Amino acid sequence: MSHIGRPGEPDKRSLRRELLAVRNRLTADDLRETSAALAGRALELPELARAGTVAAYVSVGSEPGTLALLDALRARGVRVLLPVLLPDNDLDWGAYEGAGSLARVQHGGRMALLEPAGERLGPDAVTTADAVLLPGLAVDTRGMRLGRGGGSYDRVLARLERAGVRPALVVLLYDSEVVEHVPAEPHDRPVRAVVTPSGVRRFGQGA
User: Fold this and answer.
1) Tens of pLDDT along 68-77?
2) In angstroms, what is the C-alpha Rg of the chain?
3) Mean pLDDT along residues 151-156
4) Dist CA 168 CA 183 (whole Å)
5) What's the rounded Cα separation, in Å, for the pair 55 and 200?
6) By C-alpha distance, which of 69, 71, 77 is closest to 40?
């Protein structure tokens, strides 16, 4: 296990920089191999096996690849919801209908995102999900997730809390991104599990 992010070491911003630097060194072959392995591991999760609706996302850049997983879930008959970034950084949602249904959208000076081109279902659509797959940069031994810092998924998690629903929260990462400690705030919720290319780790607090 990596020792990145032990207490008293980097704050969230410097930890993000460190983790992103490692991701940016990955090759196209690395990304292809880890995407296939990640999909295989995630599909073994009971929470996904019994889910009727999964809220997910389309990976971009050097993120752990999700398209193989999205297609496998859809082939199982699962309704897959994908996020649409709104101007205030909140997320709307649309249904995934295959890779051809995605549109590349440039949001200001940030990285372009692949978003569903069809009907917008509204920010509350995520509350219908049985499982929510979260992007992130790291997770620690408590199940606390380090996001990219935009706050979009903080809003999603707060919306789930307000609705009184508790879908399985699962973060998708590389093996080296399971760390001993990430800085957490009182409102942060632990995830139920992390899926990496080499396997699944579960956390009791998020169950």
Assistant:
1) 999 999 999 9
2) 16
3) 92
4) 22
5) 19
6) 69
Query: Which letter does DSSP use for residue 65 in this model?
Result: P
DSSP letter for 125, please. G
101 vs 75, 135, 200, CA distance in Å?
15, 21, 30
Backbone φ, ψ for residue 39 (5° rounding): -60, -45
Ramachandran area for residue 180 (φ above 0: left; ψ -120 to 50: alpha; else beta): alpha
- Taking only the tens place, the pLDDT of each residue in 158-195 is 999 999 999 999 999 999 999 999 988 877 789 999 99
Q: How many CB atoms lie within 10 A of CB 117?
A: 14
Residue of 77, 76, 201 whose CA lies nearest to 138: 201
Between 54 and 32, residue with greater pLDDT = 54
CA 1, 193, 169, 108 dihedral sign is positive
Predicted TM-score (pTM) of this structure: 0.90
